[in-house]
């Protein structure tokens, strides 16, 4: 075998080996690209799921916020209507006059007087505009005297130092009690039709 033949054989072997290496490199490159594409698809799918989940959560939060805001506005509107109704009732009570006002004032003073002992000096206070009415009414009670003004819609505030007692029987206090006791019924009648 000549030297040239040996050299040629070595070259051929080197070429074959280089060809094998290129082929293995190409296969490995294909595997790497395939794995990378698969990873990209998984990452994209995961990001898409997370994005959809985030959108769904934000939609739910906005919906909940909108519902809460609507509920608060509805409650505010109801409070406003109830306040308007109460103000209207207060105006009508404040405008009571004549026999009706006197009758109610006497009933409230009678109820308050049950809390005091005979012989007590009892002071009666009331709405400034009712001073004449109250002066006339307390004249019918022994030991009672009209003592001055009390800021209210009407009725009486009665007190005695001997009994150390003060009774608030104003129209305001009666209205407050009736209002609180019937607030649910009033709301039902106003809003559940």
Automatic annotation (TrEMBL):
Originating gene: atpE
Lineage: Archaea, Methanobacteriati, Methanobacteriota, Stenosarchaea group, Halobacteria
Skewed-composition ranges (Basic and acidic residues): 46-67
HAMAP family reported in the protein's UniProt record: ATP_synth_E_arch
Keyword Cell membrane included in the entry's annotation: yes
InterPro entries according to UniProt: ATPase_E_C (IPR038495), ATPase_V1_Esu (IPR002842)
Predominant location category: membrane
Record PANTHER family: ATPASE H+-TRANSPORTING V1 SUBUNIT E1A-RELATED (PTHR45715)
Subunit and partners: Has multiple subunits with at least A(3), B(3), C, D, E, F, H, I and proteolipid K(x).
Cellular compartments per GO CC: plasma membrane; proton-transporting two-sector ATPase complex, catalytic domain
Keywords: ATP synthesis, Cell membrane, Hydrogen ion transport, Ion transport, Membrane, Transport
NCBIfam families on file: PRK02292.1
Biological processes, Gene Ontology terms: proton motive force-driven plasma membrane ATP synthesis
Gene Ontology molecular function: any one: ATP binding
Function: Component of the A-type ATP synthase that produces ATP from ADP in the presence of a proton gradient across the membrane.
Name of the molecule in the record: A-type ATP synthase subunit E
Pfam family, one: vATP-synt_E
Family to which this protein belongs: Belongs to the V-ATPase E subunit family.
